[in-house]
Design goal:
With 161 residues, this protein is α+β, with helices and mostly antiparallel strands. It is built from six helices and five strands. Strand 4 and strand 5 form a beta hairpin. The protein is globular, with a radius of gyration of 15 Å.
């Protein structure tokens, strides 16, 4: 029997909030979207991750990639997770985690259509210093904790460069 490597550990609400405070950019241009998207593709390819990646600023899609093994379902998940970030101004995983911390689920308590909104990990706000949230970066195709962790890792590397 083969064992799969353990995925990333689920972060706490406090840890996700700290990630969002820390991962704010000085600016976010079209070139930045391209660079961040290419970094995400590189990380996903290193792991043979079957993901789709989406980066938006305002209402404009600045980057999209669909890696081998991803499907149109991943694009639908991207849209649903992205809408959560746009509505709540924080990551889709944080929104779902806050509902779980209250002993309920997003689907049961948000009063939002689950066909249009998904508080599952993978969509993260793109925040700019002195401005606020200007866009989203979303990954879909892995378990939600891994989708979230991939986006956070890419943003950590991107902000360090």
């Amino acid at each position: 029997m083969t064992t799969r490597p353990a995925g990333p550990k689920a972060p706490s609400v406090e840890e996700i909030e700290e990630q969002e405070r820390r991962l704010v950019l000085p600016r976010f241009t079209h070139e930045d979207a391209w660079a961040l998207g290419c970094l995400l593709v590189e990380l996903a390819r290193e792991r043979a991750a079957p993901v789709a990646i989406d980066i938006r600023r305002g209402g404009q899609q600045l980057f999209h990639a669909a890696l081998p093994g991803s499907s149109p379902d991943n694009d639908a998940w991207i849209d649903r997770k992205r809408r959560v970030v746009e509505r709540y101004g924080c990551s889709s995983y944080l929104v779902g985690s806050r509902f779980r911390a209250k002993g309920t689920t997003f689907e049961d308590s948000s009063r939002l259509d689950p066909d249009r909104y998904a508080a599952h990990g993978g969509a993260f706000p793109i925040g700019v210093e002195g401005v606020g949230v200007v866009g989203t970066v979303t990954v879909s195709g892995l378990p939600q904790v891994a989708d979230h962790a991939l986006v956070v890792e890419a943003l950590e590397r991107f902000t360090a460069s």
